[in-house]
Design goal:
β11 and β12 form a beta hairpin. By secondary structure, the chain is mostly beta strands. The chain has no helices and 15 strands. The protein has a single domain, classed as Jelly Rolls. The chain is 0% helix and 48% strand. The strands form two sheets. Strands 1, 3, 4, 6, 11, 12, 13 and 15 form an eight-stranded antiparallel beta sheet that branches. It has a seven-stranded antiparallel beta sheet with strand order 2-5-14-7-8-9-10, with no helix packed on it. It comes from viral metagenome. This is Putative structural protein.
Length: 229
């Protein structure tokens, strides 16, 4: 095991004459950060949309913390979960990131969606009007990525990876100009170049929908977003 470098006088990303210039850690105001590891789950932090109130959202055993969403058993039953408010915007001149690690209980007969999009109570049945997100559709094992702005599909790339019943890590990096980089399990798969990215406020979001009359589950290991201020 390598020995860590020890910066006993601190580390900063701020010029010495700035308000945070003598802070011993990087300036916490330089980015807006949300990250949830699900060691805890406070229902009041989230807006939950359920087809059937019998669906559940609960912490599950698992190293690193996990949230288990268990759907009810009718075909097309949905559970959608979003932060209580839309708090991220893809803004020109500001870099942004999204990350999540999830797994579905069925590689084929279920839909799921995870990413940043506007508040929406049916994000799988009809695409959100604005957003950047990954999704898997019922009836196939393709993981897709979509960029939607003002109810128009700006870009959609199908089959960037193959869904299984194991965990998959999904990441997005927006360069603040015109390129969205997307990653699967830490590897960059491709880019989407556009100047028509969504400019309205977006919400950290994830959803699961049955593809048959069997209750499906979605497990979220972590989910988060970061944006330059």
């Amino acid at each position: 095991m390598s020995t860590p470098k020890r910066f006993t006088n601190g580390v900063t990303n701020v010029a010495s004459d700035k308000p945070m210039g003598q802070l011993l850690i990087p300036d916490p105001t330089s980015v807006h950060t949300f990250f949830e590891d699900f060691d805890r789950y406070a229902a009041g932090d989230w807006t939950v949309t359920e087809t059937d109130a019998g669906a559940t959202q609960a912490l599950a055993d698992g190293d690193g913390g996990q949230l288990l969403i268990t759907n009810t058993a009718a075909d097309d039953d949905l559970v959608g979960i979003q932060l209580a408010k839309e708090s991220f915007t893809l803004e020109s001149g500001k870099k942004a990131w999204f990350t999540a690690r999830i797994k579905g209980s069925d590689a084929t007969q279920m839909d799921w969606l995870v990413g940043l999009h506007v508040t929406d109570t049916s994000p799988i049945a009809s695409a959100p009007s604005d957003g950047v997100y990954f999704r898997k559709d019922d009836g196939d094992t393709n993981i897709d990525i979509a960029v939607v702005a003002s109810s128009a599909t700006v870009a959609e790339v199908n089959g960037i990876a193959t869904a299984t019943t194991g965990f998959v890590r999904l990441d997005i990096y927006f360069d603040g100009v015109d390129t969205i980089h997307y990653f699967v399990d830490g590897v960059e798969i491709g880019t989407i170049e556009t100047t028509s990215f969504p400019t309205t406020e977006l919400n950290v979001s994830f959803a699961v929908q049955n593809g048959e009359a069997v209750a499906k589950t979605l497990t979220v290991d972590w989910i988060g977003a970061v944006k330059e201020r």
